[in-house]
Structures are given as C-alpha cells and as structure tokens.
Design goal:
Blueprint lengths: L12 H5 L5 E9 L2 E9 L1 E4 L2 E3 L6 E3 L2 E5 H7 L3 E5 L4 E5 L4 E5 L4 E4 L2 E4 L7 E5 L5 E5 H8 L2 E5 L4 E5 L43 E11 L2 E8 L6 E6 L4 E7 L2 E2 L5 E6 L2 E9 L2 E8 L3 E10 L2 E8 L29 H7 L5 E6 L9 E4 L2 E4 H18 L3 E4 L11 H8 L4 E8 L9 E5 L12 H16 L3 E6 L3 H4 L5 E8 L3 H7 L2 H19 L7
Helix pairs in contact: 5-10, 7-10
C-alpha cells in the first residue's frame, strides 16, 4: 500500500488563486443542514490515469476546487474511514494517518496539527436525493499530502497522480518532468487591490442557553452568542440518545456545565468547549424521533427536539459528575448516597490495581506528537477511583501508588493476604486499527464462583454499566479471559479496559481530567453496587 509523502508538488495557478470554468451545471446540493442551488463549474476527475465517476464530481466552493476524498485515496491504495460520531474522515495506509473533521480547517497528519489552506474546510455535500460525499480542497491534497495534481484546461479535468513518488513522497529518477502550461492573458482588466488591514478574529462566546417545552414530547432550545457565530453542525448520537450542536470557533462563557430540564422528554442540556468548537448536548429520556437546528440570526440558533417520551421524571440518584445520561445496560438502579454510606464498612476492603508501571509502560499512544503511556493513565484514573470510594466511607488498598511494577503474582497475592472483598484492575486498550474504540470489562472463568455472595461476572457487568452511563463510550461488552491478576484472586475480580490508547479521539479524551473523572465515577459506582451483595466468607 502506498504511503502519502509530505512534499509540495507543482500545481497550476488554477488550484491556488482562481478558477477556470469547465462545464457549467445547475443542480441542488445539500450541505450544512440545508439545500442550496449550485450554478457553477463541474470538473472531471482522473486518478492515476483512471477516469473516476463519483456520485458528486469536483465542484467550486468559495472559489476553491473541492474533490471527493474517498474516490481519490482508495484509488491510490489507502483506506478511508468516516467516524460519524466525531464527524472525522480518516485516511490510513501502512505508516501514515491523516484525520480531517467536517467544517474544521485543522487536520492531523501522523499526529501533527496542520491548517487546511485558505480556510476552505472539508464538507459533507450531496446532490439532492444522492449519496453524501466528503469533499476536501484539492490544494490540501496536493500541497500537504503530496499527491501530484494538475489541471487539464482543454478537457476541464482535475488530474491526480500518485505515480512517480517513492513511499516517502520523494520523486523517483524517472518521474516525468513537469512543464508549465502556456498562460493566456485574461481579457478583462485586473482590478486594483488594496491589502485590507488585519483584524484579530473575534471569538463568539455562548452566553445564554434556555429552553421552552412545546408539548409533553417536544422542546425548543435557544442558543445565543455575544457576537456573530460562524458555521455550526448538528447531529444525533445514540446509546444514550442525544442531540449535539457544535459551533465552530466558539467558547462557553459564564454558564453552568449542566442545565436540568426534565420536560418535553428531555433530561438535561450539557455544555462544553475546546479550542476548536463549543458543544451543546441535549439528553433525551428515550428515543429522539426528530430534531432540527436553524440559525435564526447571526447570534442565535434554535434547536427543536421531538422524542417518543412524555416529560422525563427527575432522577432520584446522586449524579455528582457531569454525565452522559444513558440508562445502565442492565437497568440496575443507582444507589442513593445514603445507600452507599449504609453499605460502606471498613470490613469490606477494596483492592485497586493500576495496570503496568515501572519499566513496563503498557500500551503506548500518541497525542500531538507526544507519547502517552498506559501506565500513567491507569494510575491517574485509579487514584480518582480511590478518592471517590474513600469519600463514600470505604476502605481502599492499592497495589501501586507510584511508578513501580508489582508482578502479576504479587497483585492478587496482596488482595488475598488482605482478605479483600473485591479486586479491580484498571487498564487501557490498544489495537493495530486506529478506528478501534470503546470500553470492555473482563472476568476470569476460573474465578467466577459465588462464595462471596456475588460473582466476578456480576462485578464486571456492574462496572461496565456505570462506565457507559458516564462516559458514553462504545459498549464492547463483558468478556471472559484468564488474566493472571483476576483468576488468582480469591474474591470477585475484574479487569476494566477504559478505552483505546491507539484511537486519536479516545487518547485525547483519556488524557483529560474531566473524562478520567467520568471513568473513575463509573468504576467506583460499579464497585459500590456490587458490594451490597458481598459477604466475606469466614
């Protein structure tokens, strides 16, 4: 499979500065949540001397040529994935990884942040009634990724070629020479141009979010910013059901993270931001039947969500952490804080095991070009689990509290010697495929008896349910495996894989204190729910 090189190839003036008209076409296009009339140039696409017939041919958008990303890269031997939850397009070959987000001019090439030229962002565009395609600026294809791009003015075609480049992207000795095409002076007179004074872009801040119940199963949410906002996207996620609105380049200002609703089938509205966007999440009690978002003015978005539920009842559980409001997988009730205290006892010791340590880093991931070690993440999350349990009155012991490496025998031996009620080992997953994601919890069949009043499998299920409740990650299920640390324990034991350190989105999440706290809260509550049934044998 061909790697993409990072090399700048010769590209005609057409690609960078202007547009030469090919065949003009009038059609209706769907993008950014609406339908738009297109009256402009449409180009043929030739990749490696093969005429490509994509559902949407190259078009002009904001005076720049956009081309369909999947057809180009699959033709040159790469794999293209679209992650709908994050609206991320991934282009992968043996040693290269490119990630681009829809309506975002920031891309990542092998972990390095790169700006897409001219502020022309990747778009999801479709002919009305046709297949939606991810369209990217052709200049990004040529200048940043390193494929050779030319424009055939006679035939009105964009030519893209991966031949003549080594896997590292350098021209081979027999690469064809490039001749600058003959330039024809335009007939019109070039207008005078005066460089505008540079103005620092103004960041719009979301400073007001409020709702109005339209009926028992419908709600309207209004989002306002203190200055005109840019592009926004909206989409629905499931498990749990929620509608998401992302406002590019915006921030949250002066608002609480969570707004409790419990009307119109909606439970909460949650707010968050990062350097690239502000996000508003509308959590539904049950299935979302329909949703829509409309920018009614430069600084106002109105979102309508219709559910299949009547007004949601306010929860009785104590949610101390901002959470994804999904129901537990087995519908197990979350105990009241008073129930935690009633069942807490110094006689029921919990042993927590932060995976790896010392000279064993565990799995290794990368974030912004920097290494992220499994042993570091597991200790950070385990310390948070310990704090939550101790604040609830439980007694906790840890197999390691620093960068040490207890053996796989020493960890369960410690739990057995301390006569623990439960043992939980915390790990971070990895996979060769970067798209692998989600949370899973293991137990050992050799240690799944009910001598303690419950089983290791039940402990694993409770922990997974509560982690999914808070994290909203993909459910990879409860699994059986004979890990040394779980099968050698006398008491119920499980091993939790929080997420994938090799997945760009999940490694970003797991390095954040907020996401670690969600994972820790889920693990701690799974432990506390299980402890209600534990009876330590004499």
């Amino acid at each position: 499979m061909r790697k993409f090189g990072v090399t700048i190839t010769a590209v005609l003036v057409f690609l960078f500065c202007g547009v030469t008209i090919a065949s003009a076409e009038s059609m209706m296009l769907e993008y950014d949540g609406g339908t738009h009339e297109y009256n402009g140039a449409v180009y043929s696409l030739v990749v490696n001397n093969q005429l490509i017939d994509p559902p949407l041919s190259p078009i002009i958008f904001n005076d720049r040529a956009l081309v369909p990303v999947r057809e180009i890269f699959e033709e040159v031997g790469a794999t293209v994935n679209y992650v709908s939850e994050t609206q991320t397009v991934e282009v992968i070959d043996d040693d290269s990884y490119v990630a681009m987000r829809i309506n975002d001019n920031v891309a990542y090439i092998n972990g390095d942040k790169t700006n897409i030229p001219d502020n022309v962002v990747p778009k999801l565009i479709a002919k009305v009634g046709g297949e939606t395609k991810t369209m990217v600026p052709v200049r990004f294809i040529s200048e940043t990724i390193g494929l050779d791009v030319e424009f055939d003015s006679e035939d009105g075609a964009i030519l893209i070629d991966s031949d003549g480049y080594t896997l590292a992207g350098e021209p081979v000795s027999d690469a064809p020479s490039y001749e600058e095409p003959e330039y024809e002076e335009p007939e019109y007179e070039e207008p005078s141009y005066e460089e505008p004074a540079y103005e620092e872009p103004q960041i719009p801040y979301v400073n007001d979010v409020y709702y109005e119940a339209q009926s028992d199963d419908e709600i309207k949410v209004t989002i306002k910013t203190d200055s005109p906002m840019g592009a926004f996207t909206f989409f629905k996620l499931t498990s749990p059901e929620r509608a998401v609105i992302d406002i590019a380049g915006a921030r949250i200002s002066g608002l609480d993270d969570t707004l409790k609703v419990y009307e119109g089938g909606i439970t909460t509205i949650r707010l968050g931001d990062n350097p690239e966007r502000a996000r508003v999440v509308i959590d539904a009690e049950n299935t979302i039947k329909d949703y829509d978002a409309e920018k009614v003015s430069d600084d106002t978005i109105e979102v309508t969500v219709k559910t299949k539920a009547v007004a949601a009842a306010a929860p009785t559980q104590n949610n101390a952490v901002n959470s994804e409001t999904a129901k537990p997988q087995n519908n197990a009730a979350l105990p009241q804080s008073s129930e935690y205290e009633a069942h807490s006892s110094s006689e029921k010791l919990i042993v927590l095991d932060a995976g790896h340590g010392g000279e064993d880093p565990g799995a290794i991931g990368y974030l912004n070009g920097n290494e992220v070690l499994e042993k570091t993440l597991t200790l950070q999350i385990t310390n948070k689990v310990k704090a939550i349990l101790e604040n609830a009155g439980y007694t906790v012991s840890m197999t390691r509290t620093g960068d040490t490496l207890p053996s796989l025998t020493e960890r369960p031996t410690q739990a057995n010697a301390e006569n623990a009620a439960l043992f939980v080992s915390i790990h971070i997953n990895s996979a060769e495929a970067m798209e692998a994601n989600g949370t899973e919890v293991y137990y050992a069949s050799e240690n799944n008896g009910d001598e303690y009043g419950t089983t290791s499998q039940k402990l694993a299920q409770n922990i997974l349910d509560r982690m999914l409740y808070y994290m909203g990650s993909t459910n990879r299920g409860v699994k059986c495996a004979e890990h040394a640390v779980t099968r050698r324990c006398n008491m119920p034991a499980s091993l939790a894989e929080v997420g994938f350190i090799t997945n760009p989105t999940e490694v970003y999440n797991m390095t954040s204190d907020e996401y670690q706290q969600k994972a820790a809260q889920g693990i701690a509550e799974g432990i506390m729910i299980t402890l209600r049934d534990v009876t330590i044998p004499d």
